């Protein structure tokens, strides 16, 4: 009973002015690769890492190449991964020279005695472990530089898919935080998330993505969860662990636990959504923004792709 879901960020945008064809194609292609790996017997942990690596390497999303830029025009990348079988986890924050932050997050989990590294220390560990290193300009795209200039001009901090630009200047490329959740043939759950954060954010800001129990969480007894949206509010809710707790202690369904946790986010002024799979293979993909870029495979074995609420294919 294999299952998977991926996301490419959330926010509010004018759907009729945003060309999402490339994003849909990329989400479908990556989800299909994940499905093939699961069908071949790969572990959920290997699959979520692989799908997030592919999303980090795609310049259409806010992770890895194409990550958004902070106030000073620099990329600062965060990532986390968690194994639902053992609750082992690894995370990195504020890195600028790590080619694939999710790979380093997994290395932190498996090759160090710690859970989380930040900044120059994380980059030194990446080098020490022989993982791929790049210069910060590797991540910067023309689209992201343009978006930063617009955000500077308006004095705003911009969410993944945010309508912070005028109708005459729609954002046509370069979107959201990425994540993946999976259930493999042995019933093991895993989650991974990666992001560049918010356009025009204050240097050093860290959101919910690398915080285990907030933006990333997995436990085989309950669910695997990856979040996207207003990170500060997801942190305050403790979103991932909140879903686990409501399922474990209140015997709530995955759908209800995610919906109620997202309502807590809304009450705090946050927007966004999550992708989640429970131990029985049920999926939940709720969001309270106008869009959440997502793809998934449920019980029908078919890859579905959606952006808004009414455009699923």
From TrEMBL:
SUPFAM superfamilies in UniProt: N-terminal nucleophile aminohydrolases (Ntn hydrolases)
Site (Cleavage): 176-177
Keywords carried by this UniProt record: Autocatalytic cleavage, Hydrolase, Protease
Lineage: superkingdom: Bacteria
Active site positions: 177
Any one GO biological process: proteolysis
InterPro entries per UniProt: Ntn_hydrolases_N, Peptidase_T2
Binding site for substrate: 205-208, 228-231
Molecular function as annotated in GO: hydrolase activity, acting on carbon-nitrogen (but not peptide) bonds, in linear amides; peptidase activity
Transmembrane segments annotated in the record for this chain: none
Record Pfam families: Asparaginase_2
Keyword NAD found: no
Stated name of the protein: Isoaspartyl peptidase
């Amino acid at each position: 009973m294999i299952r998977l879901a991926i996301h490419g960020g959330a926010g509010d945008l004018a759907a009729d002015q945003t060309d999402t064809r490339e994003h849909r194609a990329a989400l479908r292609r990556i989800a299909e690769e994940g499905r093939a790996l699961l069908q071949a017997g790969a572990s959920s942990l290997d699959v979520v890492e692989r799908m997030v690596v592919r999303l980090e390497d795609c310049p259409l999303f806010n992770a890895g190449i194409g990550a958004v830029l902070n106030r000073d025009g620099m990329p600062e990348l965060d990532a986390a991964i968690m194994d639902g079988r053992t609750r082992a986890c690894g995370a990195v924050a504020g890195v600028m020279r790590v080619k694939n932050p999710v790979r380093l997050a997994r290395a932190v989990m498996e090759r160090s005695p710690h859970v989380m590294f930040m900044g120059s220390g994380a980059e030194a560990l990446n080098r020490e472990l022989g993982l791929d290193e790049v210069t910060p300009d590797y991540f910067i795209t023309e689209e992201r530089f343009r978006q930063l200039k617009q955000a500077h001009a308006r004095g705003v901090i911009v969410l993944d898919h945010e309508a912070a630009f005028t109708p005459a200047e729609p954002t046509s490329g370069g979107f959201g935080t990425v994540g993946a959740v999976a259930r493999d043939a042995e019933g093991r759950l895993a989650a991974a998330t990666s992001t560049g954060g918010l356009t025009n954010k204050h240097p050093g800001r860290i959101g919910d993505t690398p915080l285990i129990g907030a933006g990333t969480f997995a436990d085989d007894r309950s669910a695997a969860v990856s979040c996207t949206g207003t990170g500060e509010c997801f942190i305050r809710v403790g979103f991932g662990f909140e879903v686990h707790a409501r399922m474990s202690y209140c015997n709530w369904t995955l759908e209800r636990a995610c919906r109620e946790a997202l309502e807590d986010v809304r009450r705090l002024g946050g927007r966004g959504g999550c992708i989640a799979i429970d131990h029985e293979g049920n999926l939940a993909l709720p969001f309270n923004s106008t869009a959440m870029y997502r793809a998934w495979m449920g019980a029908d074995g078919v890859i579905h792709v959606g952006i808004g609420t009414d455009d699923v294919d």
